[in-house]
Amino acid sequence: MRRRDFDFDERVDEWVEYYLGNGPSLVVFLVLTGSAFLVGVSFYVHSDPSLSDLPTFLYPLFGDSPTALALLTLSAATLLPNLGRPVSDAPVNRPLAYLHTLAFVWLVKYGIWTFVALNLRPDLYVGFSGAALWDYWGIMLTHLGFLVGAYLVPRYGATTRGALAFALALALVNDVFDYGFGYYPPLKYDAGLLLAGITVALSFVAVALAARAFDRLNLTGDDYSDPRKQ
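and the corresponding structure tokens:
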């Protein structure tokens, strides 16, 4: 019997169309990402330092993972007005390009960052006790799920050169805030120069991947051409 060809990207497109283009399943997805955002906020509320130690407008820079989840939730929520039409026909414009690009960059950066940070000092995290099951396996696996979310965003979004440059600038500002002022995500060890250097490198890697993953939205004044329909 002849083996059928399997096109992974085509299957993902079908999955995105079915689940993110369907009202009930899209709402479930938004509830899950919104709930995960609240879990992340709770972590930073009870951490040391905590959100209470910072001015409100700095919360997004301190709560890196909740920020990524908030951006993903907002990005996916832009599909709600598009229900009843193919996900590939979702509206694209300059503000949405910035939102989708930021969501992708934050998801990729902090999905990978968490895996790296925990495995730089596995002796402090790896284990099979009740606490270790969450502190290592739970946190690592849930944050690797960020990469799945990031993979979905370019299926309905686009980017621009300005959005990519803005995402890189903001990611580097976040790095300065984290390591210049000591507000990196709470760890069981001091981050040091190695993790700081890796984090800065991840800012560039995440933006480079965004440039590769997204179609480019061509803008001239207030007009645009949607590359997905060309």
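(Above: one complete record from the training split.) The longest strand covers residues 218-220.
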